[in-house]
Every structure is written in structure tokens, then in C-alpha cells.
Amino acid sequence: MRLSGRGVACVRGGREVFSGLDFEAISGEAVAVVGRNGAGKTSLLRLIAGLLVPAGGTIALDGGDTELTLPEQCHYLGHRDALKPALSVAENLSFWADFLGGERRDATESLATVGLDHATHLPAGFLSAGQRRRLSLARLLTVRRPVWLLDEPTNALDVAGQDMFGGLMREHLGRGGMIIAATHGPLGIEARELRIGGTA
Ligand SMILES: Nc1ncnc2c1ncn2[C@@H]1O[C@H](COP(=O)(O)OP(=O)(O)OP(=O)(O)O)[C@@H](O)[C@H]1O
């Protein structure tokens, strides 16, 4: 599987953020998108996820499921955790599994893996920042998708959480998945750097 972008341009609010961007990721590979604040790291992830339309160029996935679009083969985890505070931990995960569709894995097991098995009935609004992030990560495990698009994924995770997440990323890559992560710090796994917008 190969994800590639050729001559990709991004315009937001009428202003060009970047243009002529080429990038590539293959199965089993992690790419760390780096660059200064406002360089367009989040925008690039949103372009790949189909949440923004490129102003130029093309983005394509070769060797994936031909019956599915690229966005349907991506998990997009934004830097804010998309959770409903009044729903419980288990209900939030169930919502995401329904929304994403496809084959669903055991949610209880996913919550145990991210260390939230003691909190399944707690409203998500009561979770700490790191626990909210862990709940978002459980989505990646409950519904399998080959392309993980992660925006500042280690934010708010403690050292044990970062280790746990490093293990999950390695497993995903070992299964032939790929990871594109926007980050200002170390991702915790070996990753090829994609710098956008010049030196930070
Ligand atoms: N909805 C929007 N309308 C107009 N401009 C936007 C919008 N969203 C983002 N931008 C602009 O697009 C540019 C790129 O933003 P983006 O969030 O992709 O940068 P980033 O590299 O992820 O930044 P950071 O490191 O601060 O997270 C910024 O100048 C931002 O102000």
C-alpha cells in the first residue's frame, strides 16, 4: 500500500498555506509531519482525510481496498478529542464504532488496552485530559483502518500512556498499516520526517 501526494496545494480562508507539496508513505511506515505553528500540518492531515479539498494536486492510495475511498480507509484523530461529555466512556466508543462502520472489535478489550476499563460507565466529561486522549485512541483499536492520521497524538499522555501508544503504533505498522502524524515533539517510534513550510 502506498499513499502519495503530488503537487498538493492548500488554501484556507483565501490564503495559500502551502503548495507543490509531494509526499509518500508506504505500508509499515510512519511519517512525522513537522513545521512551525501555522505551517499547515493539521491542514495536510485534513486534506488526506477528505475533510478539506486540495486547491491543487492529487492525493491517492494505491493498493488499498478498491471498494473504499481513501477517507474510508483513514482514521483521523484531531488534536481535540471528539467526545460527547454527557455520554459514558463506553457510549462514546460505541458511537464512534457505529459512525465509522465496518467490522468492530471488542470495545471492552480496546478500553482495557488503553487503561480505561475501570471507567467504562463514567461520563466522558469527567475524564482527565490524558484519559480523554486514551479514549480517542481506543477508536483506532475498535475499528481497524490502515491509515492513521494523528494530530499531536501524544498530547496529555503520561509516560506510561506514551509507552502504551508507542506499542499500539508499532503493532499497527507491523500489520502493514501506516501512520501520518503531525507533531512538535518525538512521536515515540521511528518515523520519517516530512517538513512543511520551511524551517521552524
Ligand atoms: N477554518 C480556517 N479558516 C481560515 N484559515 C484557517 C482555518 N483553519 C486554519 N487556518 C489557517 O491555516 C493555516 C494552517 O493551519 P494549521 O492548523 O494547518 O497549521 P499547523 O501547522 O497544524 O499549526 P500548529 O502547529 O499551530 O498546530 C494557519 O495560518 C491557520 O490560521
Automatic annotation (TrEMBL):
Keyword list (alphabetical) reads: ATP-binding, Cytochrome c-type biogenesis, Membrane, Nucleotide-binding, Translocase, Transport
Matching entries from InterPro entries are given as: AAA+_ATPase, ABC_transporter-like_ATP-bd, ABC_transporter-like_CS, ABC_transptr_haem_export_CcmA, P-loop_NTPase
- Recall the GO molecular function terms of this protein's record: ATP binding
Keyword S-adenosyl-L-methionine part of the UniProt annotation: no
Sorted alphabetically, which SMART domains does this protein's record hold?
AAA
Q: Which domain of life is it from?
A: Bacteria
All residue ranges annotated as the ABC transporter domain in the record: 1-200
Q: Which Pfam families match?
A: ABC_tran
Mind telling me which SUPFAM superfamilies this protein's record contains? P-loop containing nucleoside triphosphate hydrolases
Q: Which PANTHER family does this one have?
A: ABC TRANSPORTER I FAMILY MEMBER 1
- What family is this? Belongs to the ABC transporter superfamily.
Protein function: Involved in beta-(1-->2)glucan export. Transmembrane domains (TMD) form a pore in the inner membrane and the ATP-binding domain (NBD) is responsible for energy generation.
Q: What is this protein called?
A: Heme ABC exporter ATP-binding protein CcmA
The organism encoding this protein is: Bradyrhizobium campsiandrae
The gene designation is ccmA
